[in-house]
Amino acid sequence: MPDNDPEFVDSHCHLNLLDLDAWDGSFERMMAATRDAGVSHVLCIATELETFHEVRDLAEQWPWVHATVGVHPLYGDAREPSPAELVELAAHPRVVAIGETGLDYYYAAEDADWQRERFRVHIRAARETGLPLVIHTRKAREDTLRLIEEEGEGEVTGVLHCYTENRTMAERALELGFYISVSGIATFQNASKVRKVIDKLPLERLLIETDAPWLAPEPWRGKPNEPRYVPRVAETVAELQGVSVTEVARVTRDNYFRLFSKAEPAEEPAASA
After folding, report:
1. Residue 152 Cα distances to 40, 109, 179, 183, angstroms
2. Which residue segments constitute the domains of the chain, with CATH numbers given?
């Protein structure tokens, strides 16, 4: 991409789960299209230990991809991690965060007890490694913040990804040193409450993401999502914040490397290693 073009960072996607039908099954073609869209780096998020190797391998192969390690709160059948195992896996040079972790009382309120214990395990691993948390939270505002405070003891930071909660929670998270990530949901016509939260938050504490293969932004809503759509999220943030898309791209890129400080920018984001 030309030096003066904005560089976007997709701070949350699941490359190992993408639908490649539109690319005739070619992962390489999809990644090339991602680069052509101005995306300079992506964070590939782990959701279970059983498939962590897929996430890790992609980060090893592509110099502009980073990885996380964790078990999603809705993956009830996944193998439970221990803090020691998460710490061991997080020692890999391409792993820059702990997660996806958190609490989801919207879909699985009946499993709240084991969700909370699993979340505690991840927070302990984050404290030991010094890596940030990637948090999924839905309808669990008080417990999410309470466990961060109890287990984190002021020593952990991270991001609340795909944010759909209220402004009060966002402000409390910012006070705890966390970032807020904006997804394609902000582009939806029925997402006025989400947009009203985003337009009041400091740009210096925002990230942008796709959460691909889910939650494609307008005008692709309902279709498989891809990292190449993250500039559309940046456009929405720019509209809400009253700044240029270039400014959103620059600041959220800086925020990404500030939060995920173990991540190193790719000197030359080539097609593959």
Report:
1. 31, 23, 15, 26
2. 26-259 (3.20.20.140)
